[in-house]
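As the next step, I selected for study a record pairing a protein sequence with its backbone structure tokens, which the following lines show:
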Amino acid sequence: MTNPSFLLRRCNAVPFMRFCVVLLTLPPSLLAGNVLITTSLGEGSHYFVGKTIGKYLVRHGHNVTVLVSEAYAHRADNPEDSELNFIVFHQSTEQIKSVKERHLAFSKRVNNVVANQVLFQILEYMHGPFNTVRERHQIRQDLQGSISDLIGTYTDLFLVNMDFAVEYPLPLIPNIITIGGITARPAAPLPDDLETLMQSSGDGGVILFTLGTYVTHIRQEFLEPFAEVFGRYPQQKVLWQFVGEPKFKIPPNVKMMPWLPQNDILGHPKTRLFIFHGGNNGFYETMYHGVPAILIPLTGDAIDQGSRLTHQGFGIVLDKTNVTVDVLDDAIKTIFNNNSYSEVAKLLSARLQSRSMHPGDRAAFWVNHVMKHGGGYMRSPLIGLNFIQRNMLDVLAFFLALVSVILVVSFYSIRCTLSFCKQKCISSSKQKHD
């Protein structure tokens, strides 16, 4: 990988002090500090989560810098994010595409083991430019290992985009803070043209369809069934996020746009259904606003979102290899003809919104806490254990050895006892015979 070059925008220095998952903090003696947020490349749902955390930190008085790839340098020019600083590093689009081409399919429990190792290798590849940054600026040279190693070893705080309103129950260590649904918020007014379209939908309402920001190029054959099925529902308007020019016929009730305010449309009272690729932000936004969904997992953690959606019962999951006209039509009819999906969605919406503070404020609170008091006391003690200790192989070996000794002693004791009894019987029989 080539060494990255840097463009500094509204920032004069790289504010590294302590490694965290999405931030680096100053010593706890300062009330406010410099925070660096990295969302790997700077595109998709990860970026929106990262910048949202950054904006809440700015509200709490911190200076926030966001590190993005040159392929997404336009992020630095967005006036909506003017309160954030940006550092743009060089990484070619070809390098980015080569990492997406590594999403892999495995089965059942083997998937967890193998996929974790594959993910670690992908992260090592993606962290290459950051390792170069660290070496160039002599950042914490006293710490050994790559960025990936340091994240697991020295991180004081993890901010995880999940919420137990929909997540399966699982134990968490203290330095893992849940901020699920951080991009979900009450709907803002729509632009006039979109508001006019929403109101023109009448009682039929609106279907929102998107395949996410990462999926900009997809086979037309995959998209054609959607256009055909949408045309069967003239009583509904369809908003379709689509980049480029379609090579298939678009029904009159469908409006295509390269970008849509997803959260605000989902929060509009006219929205009846959300069809999407399974992005984590979209998953929480549709649940937050109580809109049933049809989920088509394409990449990454979308399969996990599909599992949660099916488990909770507020939508339907379709196989991306079998999205035919009939399959899609049946799924839409099932959602519209069965009120249970909408009822469950509203129930989950009330559950998710019933929280003591917004996830952004929650994230800012814990970042402030770690800056002021440190977070080492919340780290898992597993970090200091080796593989044998961590998996308790030494304890298992001890008990196996103990059981083996007991079995061997018991075996020889029984053997000796039987042998002694046998000799006694033979001796007694001989004496009796004599």
Q: What stands out?
A: The chain has 15 helices and twelve strands. Residues 6-182+358-382 form a domain with the Rossmann fold fold (CATH 3.40.50). Confidence is low (pLDDT under 50) at residues 1-30, 93-99. The radius of gyration is 29 Å.
